[in-house]
């Protein structure tokens, strides 16, 4: 009787040990497979594992939260990538390598998403978001300078119109002065909003405010240009005007329309 009970207990212990071994082995294989599915920029695959202090939690709850985060970042990062593509193509100031890094990071995140490695997809998209923000910071430095220079030029032109003795007696000049003063006020307000948005880490919003500031400044430049200067003003700001509309500038083709970039 005791021997029978002992055999039963031994059998149960053996089954439990075997099940635990299989589970651990499966988990190790799963972790390795996930790691090897992460393609690196040089075309190789990541084979080193996370250590147990760094390996992300792989529980059901973690996967549940990861789904929401990944779905959100898929949309946000894609919108940011398009906006950055427009700016980088229109005013490339050595940003292409940074943009390509962001683009490849997004692709890796999507690859993991489609392979249903949702935990590692979340990590990739969060890293991609940081890379995108870093590129925005570089772009905004140049974009703010261009906008400031344009606003300062507008302010100088409006001051000259103020000092022109004929402005008070000429209704047309007086109307132009008032209209462009209002435009300049709006442009500077948009510039201030851009600085506030940047301070609050709303970087794509900051770029949008700067575009609005530019649009008003360009209207001032076109409005105050002399007849013989209008073509040169139009030519000078043609790329800026396309960029303000979130478009990549392309010259008009001979058959009409625009050439696709």
- Percentage of residues in DSSP E strands: under 5%
Q: SSE order, as H and E? A: HHHHHHHH
Helix percentage: over 70%
Unreliable sequence segments: 22-37
Shape: elongated
Number of helices: 8
Going by helix content, strand content and strand pairing, the class is mainly alpha
Major β-sheet, in short?
Answer: none
Rg calc? 30 Å
Describe this structure in a few short sentences.
This protein is mostly helical. It is built from 8 helices and no strands.
List the helices and strands and how they pair.
Blueprint: H1 2-36, H2 60-90, H3 96-114, H4 118-163, H5 171-199, H6 203-224, H7 230-236, H8 238-244
Helix pairs in contact: 2-3, 2-4, 3-4, 4-5, 4-6, 5-6, 6-8
Q: What does this molecule look like?
A:
The relative contact order is 0.08. It is elongated, with a radius of gyration of 30 Å. Helix content is 75%, strand content 0%. It has a domain of 105 residues. It contains 8 helices and no strands. It has 261 residues and is mainly alpha-helical. About 6% of the residues have low confidence. It starts with a helix and ends in a 17-residue tail after the last helix. The longest helix has 46 residues.
Supply the key terms.
261 residues; 8 helices; elongated; mainly alpha
